[in-house]
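Below is how a single chain appears once it has passed through the pipeline. First comes the sequence as given, then the structure the pipeline wrote out for it. We keep one example in the README because the format questions we get most often are answered faster by looking than by reading.
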Amino acid sequence: MMMTKHNDYYRTLQVHHDAGQDVIDAAYRCLCKMYHPDLNQNPSAAEKMKFINIAYGILGDEKKRRIYHIEWLKNQVVKPASTPTPTPSPAKHTVRDEKLDTDLAAKVLDEFFRDTVNESWESAYQKLTSVDQNNIPREDFLEWKKAVSQMYRLGNYKITFFRKYQNCDYAGVIYPVIYQFSVALTEMQIVTGRISEEVTQKYVAFNGDGCRVCLGYLDLKPTIKKFKYLAQALPKMDKDEIFMKAVAKIDPLTGVLSLSGFKEQAEREMLRSCRYGNPLTMAVVTVKPSQSQDDTLEEYQLDACISYISEILCGNIRKTDMIGRCDDSSFGILFTETKQEDAEEALNKLLELCQKDDFLSFQLCTAIANLNIGDVELSLKEAMERVVPREKVKEETSPLEAEEKAAKLGKYKLSDILGFNKRGKNHF
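Resulting structure:
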């Protein structure tokens, strides 16, 4: 991925480079409200919105953001705190010497992380710079490591050399060389069993005699208190219970949110809408399969239609919108930052796509829900009771076009879709 001064995506979305995903999503929604061509008639708004969409396409995807962030770091200009007095080098280093020095620094950092994995914290402390050992007492370091180990367990890590700084100031001391490394970490939260990955930056200082790891803390006591509090405050939940709760939020047939998952997300969006005064619209789509002529497939007809429609809806709604399965035959769609008239227009376009092919026979009924703050289930129930059938728009086609369409029709046959569901491969 090439980086230029024109594609700082963090700057484009106006977020910090350490911002969480919820902050990035909220920033994107806010910028959409400001620059979307439907809301902003300024000629430059469309071009601005184009760059916003590109930025969110990268930062809104966890894997793409991880790759982009490494490249972004490489393009940051590091300004030293002060201009150090240059000191003559006793001898010119060859490329081979520099490679050996870098490998030595990487080896020390690897040993530091290996000590952390093995909980050899005494050994890890000895690998810190003299500055860190002066600032952080050994007892505080050991207590900090113990407090962190009650919350998190370090798994795999990968160290990649990033950059070298010469005559660099670290905590008031000028080191001849400081090496910067990018470290990809995999860690597990012990209480919940959740596995997460992140990329962090670590520094190793060369003081003329050897390499030492830069810890980067002046006082560990506040951090120790925080981790001790978290260890006591988090509920001791059973891992099987956590897994079952997570599974319950996803509909097994379609892969979209289940009713409980949709309620949770929708209630959160309702509160945000009330807080900031942003428009929010919720719609219901009910699927009514036509009677099948083949009695052997009749019991599977609804599942086949639901699977097909969910695939189309999920593939065409905006990233910021949400879809969930409300009951056996209905979907709820939450249009964020969208007024009712705009939501109705977007819904019609989605339903046109659903009814474009007719190899599955069904009727779609829709309604716009009246939002009851704090009671999403009631809003959905009321809307499902007053859904009205949507008439399919018939396209006039010549006999030749109809024959051509029939030949191409059926991305999947009904039997294919049923097979996908049976094998558990119907992912949108």
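Residues 95-233 form a domain with the Nuclear Transport Factor 2; Chain: A, fold (CATH 3.10.450.50).

See the next section for the split statistics.
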